Fold:
Amino acid sequence: MKLTLDGIKKQEEWKQAGIELPGYDVEAVSAKAKEAPGWVHFGIGNIFRVFIGGIADELLETGVLDRGITCVETFDYDVVDKIYDPYDNLGLNVILHGDGTREYKVLGALAEAVKAQSSNEKQWNRLKEIFANPSLQIVSFTITEKGYALHKVDGTWFPFVEADIKNGPDQANGGMAVLVAMLYERFKAGKYPIALVSMDNCSQNGAKLRESVLTMAKEWEKQGFFTEEFVNYVSDEKVVAFPWTMIDKITPRPSEQIAEDLEKLGVESMQPVITRKKTYIAPFVNAEKPQYLVIEDNFPNGRPELEKGMGVYMADRETVNLSERMKVTVCLNPVHSATGPLGVVLGYDLFAKMLNTNADMMSMARMIAYDEGLPVVADPGILSPQAFVDELFEERFPNEYLGDTNLRLAVDVSQMVGIRFGETVKAYVEKYGDASRLTAIPLGIAGWLRYMLAVDDEGNAYTLAQDPMNEELQEQLKDIVIGQPDSLKDQLKPILSNERLFFIDLYKAGLGEKIENMFREMITGIGAVRAAIHKYVQK
Structure:
């Protein structure tokens, strides 16, 4: 069986393999999207296909949606060449249940894959056509939090952003520059309204996206590429809206075992690939079943009935904000970011296996969510924080079939510590005057910095997960030697006091010295990390 438009016509073979096929006309909904695009998505990797694409697939199945999604890749063009084009833009979603059973579904909602590559005239002109079409209602994004960043930690432009500002919209390269260049096409075509919907896992994501768009537009206005009228167009949220969202679905990297299992079922060419930009991706996506997407209902050009998709809630901005804070700053992501890097140091590959077999790590995870997070979280109303955490610990975190790795959870932690830890720290400062009563969160921060030394608790070296601050942080920590606790002097102070990083000076919050002491205990020698965790979670 081939995952292609011709291949899925052999319906009986797929049915016998237990793989569900689209119940709608894939070619028809793709053709309609190409003629009159309604929904464009930037960042077309795993989470997009299994979650956003899965929602669109569900809406197509029920007739709520009548066209597919236009898929735009702004960063890794190999994804289009290796995963979209060879499979006629079809995908295969694999849902992994905690009892080991799976659901297989071929995804036909991905109408077209376009490279946002200004040097590729054909692709660039196609993107312009799409954005100039008045039918376009939604542009959504899963480009990770760093996809919106224009500045380095020190406040200076990233080099690629500086080049984009200088070169102008016709030679745009970065994701935000590409987006603003396309908004200019929409402005010229008729000043059509549009909703730009960040679905990335970061606090107040709509505000982050808007800030980046306005910054780029104003910089290009200064350079003479745009007029004030265009800046006014993207500034008017009644015309160009930036709805906030909260998104939640655990999506590990594609499993080689699942690829083998699919090929045993008869599906050809399922093996994952690693692109030249180190994206690990496959023709299928594996993920858990539970999913949540809370969206601010602000769509100036209309929208499909998104709320008819599984786990989708339409709400006002305050409800979205509270839902996001519940998940990102308290219930789920802080547990991942605090225990994932420590899991690497302790030598655990799988996150679930670590929690299921190491009582101290499970205690630490529960302390972060139940003891330290829930007391300061606001109830968003549409989702119960207590029920959300209970589901995490009873169903989602223990699911070893997900295959989620601690190393994946250590990706880009530097870009997330402010949201995932800083917000709770600030809440404690506001409530109690300082955050000194916290234990598991500072232990997680100390553990992340210990992880940055790239030596595990048995003295073995490992490779760090991708993070834009790896080099900078390792340079800061280079004189620290495991087995020599006195080698820790003032190296942590510039990090822990950095308000751009943590959104608060951790020393002023009453945690700086506490984290230093925890870190010092973790570098005393072999087994010191395990001992330090045991000491603090048993209190």
User: Anything to note?
Assistant: The two ends are 57 Å apart (CA to CA).
